[in-house]
Amino acid sequence: MKIIEENNFDLHDLEDWLVNKIGLSEKTKNKIKKNHQFLLKKVSENKAIYGVNTGFGALCNSKIQNEELGLLQKKLIQSHAVGVGEILPKKISKTMLLFKIFGLSKGYSGVSLSLVEKLIHMYNTNLIPVVYEQGSLGASGDLAPLAHLSLPIIGDGELWYGDAIKNASVLAFESIELQPKEGLALINGTQFMTAHGAIVLDKAKRLFDKALRIACLSLEAFEASASPFFAINHHLRPHKGQIFVADEVLKLLGDSILFMSKKDTVQDPYSFRCIPQVLGASLDVISHVKQIFSIEINSVTDNPNVIEEENAIYSAGNFHGQPLAMALDYLAIALSEIGSISERRSYKMLNGLRNLPPFLVPKPGLDSGYMILQYTAASLVSQNKQLCSPASVDTIDSSNGQEDHVSMGANAATKCLRVIKNLEHILSIEYLLACQAIDFRETDKMGSKSKILYNLLRKTVPFAKEDRAFKNDMVQAHQIIVENPL
Can you tell me the distance from the alpha carbon of 449 to that of 452, in angstroms, rounded to the nearest whole number? Predict the structure, then answer.
């Protein structure tokens, strides 16, 4: 079991958290209980507290009677559960639930221990709420998605039951009565954005490593020169990611005769020669965005903030997703560029250069070879470029102008997830082409590490002597990219 302590979540551990049950430390339980009692004391003083005994958004000046405070919170969740679009993958919804538990466990939200324990029970029994992809402006928190996440708490909405979806009422899911502020604490927050970002970042680091190894295969297949990767070039311009990538290429291909031998060509195309500069820049972005999300996941992002040590309740704006929106836009650009330079290498390997046959088949003309795979990669690369139009510069008025600047971070999140899914396919195409091109070389002159990657594909995808249904090859390559740790 994983125990929730203050500031103890690291993005490296996401997969470990998702496969384990969770619990609260005694210190965390006590902090939650103490904070909740403080809120109830403030409510008893009958002063206006936003979202506790007032309406929401533009209705913040509407006073609510004490006997209706629980009903107010229930109605809030019901009225805000208006998400549309695709159902989120169960893994993302479970990550949202985990991050919501983290936030409420900080002890600054005023919620009861029973509410947090109810969320933990749902998490530990794998009763994960069904959440929809669209509906959040990423500013008052991810209101619509988090309302769907919260519906089962009040006996409504849908839950994942294994791989099926069931209504909470059909499952006889035991609901609870909400106390003051609890509905607001549940739907205020950035957990939709952070869950998407965490999943993308987890994929990004794994995919970056694979992109680098596939690029090494292409360097051998194209018989590119090793000299642009020598350390002296990169210490003259010491960006951390650039130095790392150049060093990794030489480590991976240090025993490759195809790569390390002296070449007659004066220069290679940028898509080969500038791998350290391009992939290194993307790696630096991934590292930067990871820092942003690490802070956010370990933060309190609902509203108002219940701060007992100052004897105060502050209505502030920690739910605003601007840091995440900008980071997700940046991350999408970095991932898109990994795919963009990959597709250019694929294109070059099909051009009949460096003693490779056009379209990488022995008899081009009768056979089209891998011609159209590059079309597919180009289509995905272009879509990624379109998806990289920033969401974070957009905003729109909501709630009668009370919420007059929004982050659009939720849209940035869903776009970024789409970019990385496209990237998986772009890299799988380069992988196929690089292995096919290497078969026109002397494979015994490959580097030992890249030979492992080559052999992994050749277990299921043979050399293409002539045209065949290449879609099957693409599926096999994609499966290796997504599932194999390499």
Answer: 5
Domains of the chain: 2-189 (1.10.275.10), 196-483 (1.20.200.10)
Output the pTM of the full model. 0.95
Residue 7: what pLDDT?
A: 66
Sheet holding 128-129, edge to edge: 128-129, 158-161, 164-167
Q: What is the pLDDT of residue 5?
A: 85
Give the CB-side neighbour count of residue 194, counting CA atoms within 13 A.
36
Cβ(62)–Cβ(55) under 8 Å? yes
Give me the amino acid identity at 73: Q
Beta bridge partners of 54: 63
Residues 50, 108, 123, 132: which is the catalytic one?
A: 50
Task: Say which residue, 50 or 358, is predicted with more confidence.
Answer: 358
Rounded Cα distance, 390 and 78, in Å: 31
**Which tens digit of pLDDT belongs to each residue from 278-317?**
999 999 999 999 999 999 999 999 999 999 999 999 999 9
Cβ atoms within 10 A of the Cβ of 46, count?
10
Q: Taking the chain, what is the end-to-end CA distance rounded to the nearest angstrom?
A: 29
Strands 2-4 and 22-24, sheet pairing: parallel
pLDDT for 77 equals: 95
Burial pattern 235-272, b for ≥16 Cβ within 10 A else e, equals: eeeeeebbbbbbebbbebbeebebbbeeeeeeebeebb
Question: What are 314-348's pLDDT values in tens digits?
Answer: 999 999 999 999 999 999 999 999 999 999 999 99
Taking alpha carbons only, the member of 431, 442, 445 closest to residue 486 is: 431
Sign of CA dihedral 356, 358, 362, 363: negative
CB 139 within 8 A of CB 405: yes
132 is catalytic: no
The angle that helices 191-221 and 448-458 make with each other, rounded to 10 degrees, is 110
Contact 234, 240 (CB under 8 A): no
